[in-house]
Amino acid sequence: MEKTNLEKLNTWFELVKGPKNLTIDEAREINNKIRRLPSNRQELQEELILGTMHVIYDFLKNFTFIEDVNTIYDMDDFISSFCEVWIENLEQGLYKQNDFLNMFNSKFFDKLNEKLGVSEKNSMFVHINKIDFDKE
Q1: Buried/exposed code over 14-44 (b: 16+ C-beta within 10 A; e: otherwise)
Q2: What CA–CA distance (Å, rounded) separates 59 from 75?
Q3: What does the mean pLDDT of the chain come to?
Q4: 99 burial via Cβ count (<10 Å: 0-12, 13-18, 19+)
Q5: 39 within 8 A of 9, measured Cβ to Cβ
Q6: pLDDT one-digit tens code per residue, 4-14
């Protein structure tokens, strides 16, 4: 029997979650260390990325149509693309936003659509893009 999208998400999170869920202030502090201490960069980047995976997990877990993803995207590709965009935007977002949730804005979803090869009009994020998360 094939796993549901929520089961796939739970399995993914168990594999990638960090030992500690970072707050945005803790993530900023680590990011500042990365900029100052290039010798420990890889270890600190890993701590930052793994420590913020809970943000992606929580967002997607509460995404009201997570079970509909397979009708548009492959769930594994969806999670992978979501993570790629998160990591690409993490450093910049930490300085511009006061909350992790505010990092999910129209620019984030535009990049996600691009990675998934979906036009905006066919995106499941059009409603989110334009109404719920544009807090820049």
Answers
A1: eeeeeeeebebeebeebbeebeeeeeeeeeb
A2: 15
A3: 81
A4: exposed
A5: no
A6: 888 888 999 99
